[in-house]
Amino acid sequence: MGGERPVVAVATTGADAEECAAQARAAREAGADLVELRADLLAGPVAADPAPAELARVWLEVARAVGEVLGDSGIPVLLTVRTAAEGGGLDLDDAAYRAALAAVVAELTGDDGAACDVPGHEAGEDEDAPEPGGRGIGPIAAIDVELARGELAGMVRLARRGGLDVVASSHDFTSTPGEEELTRRLRAMQEAGAAVAKIAVTPADAPDVERLLGVAARARVELAIPIIAIAMGAAGAVTRLAGGIFGSALTFATAGGPASAPGQLPVAQVRAALTETALHRNRH
């Protein structure tokens, strides 16, 4: 991620392993570069308040099914637990969210000590943690961690000790924050040690989209990590098709299944736009 062309990702929207595996197969056949497993959309355990370890086991069972379908394609999996606070399907408070992600790392690594709430960490702590860019564990290369849930630096350290990278994220489903706030969020993600910084907003008009793209272009120059900048909905379609021109390193597309967020377009359409953009760049 962070090369000349944006990575094309497809997110699963299925409720179980069978649906998600079928969607991952379609993503592979459509030419996706990455599959995002939306664990928050899975049908969870029956209990009203399931333990983090129980949630993690359910999510990872589905991840393994997705990994089997992807086989030796080299397509990595990003495990995402999108909270209701950011437009997702899982209504967890901040502490429960962090505990659930810690349980994922514990289940993957066999480290029972990770299966607890993450204490406060400063970005400079734990110097023995590996640098970003690990191979991941099994089918999972990275996990998504929401900036607003708190303790991002601690979650990054925990994930990296387990061999996982972190895509730090921030989603606004009602508005587009100002330039200063968008820049602050991206910088906070880098300072916490994330491998990738992602912001997604909902524009009201063209100036909102222009502001996001301007922030993305500057951040791509000023920050040391790849950034993802997406404006959701019809007004933001340009960010999904030509965001790479402004420094966005990834775009989401569909592969025959439902979109995981407003405004996603089919992989073929996105690929065609990226190819045309690359040709235009080479000509000029």
Overview of this protein structure:
With 284 residues, this protein is α/β, with parallel strands linked by helices. It has a single domain, classed as Aldolase class I (TIM Barrel, Alpha-Beta Barrel). 39% of the residues lie in helices and 16% in strands. The chain contains 8 helices and 9 strands. A 9-stranded parallel beta sheet has the order 7-6-5-4-3-2-1-8-9. α2 links the parallel β2 and β3. α5 packs parallel to α6. The protein is globular, with a radius of gyration of 18 Å. The two termini are 24 Å apart. About 3% of the residues have low confidence.
Could you outline the blueprint of secondary structure elements for this entry?
Elements: E1 7-11, H1 17-30, E2 34-38, H2 52-70, E3 77-80, H3 94-109, E4 140-146, H4 152-161, E5 165-171, H5 179-191, E6 196-201, H6 206-222, E7 227-231, H7 237-242, E8 250-254, E9 265-266, H8 267-283
Parallel strand pairs: 1-2, 1-8, 2-3, 3-4, 4-5, 5-6, 6-7, 8-9
Helix pairs in contact: 1-2, 2-3, 5-6
In short:
The chain has 284 residues and is an alpha/beta fold. 39% of the residues lie in helices and 16% in strands. It is built from eight helices and nine strands.
Keywords:
284 residues, alpha/beta, TIM Barrel, 9-stranded parallel beta sheet, 9 strands, 39% helix
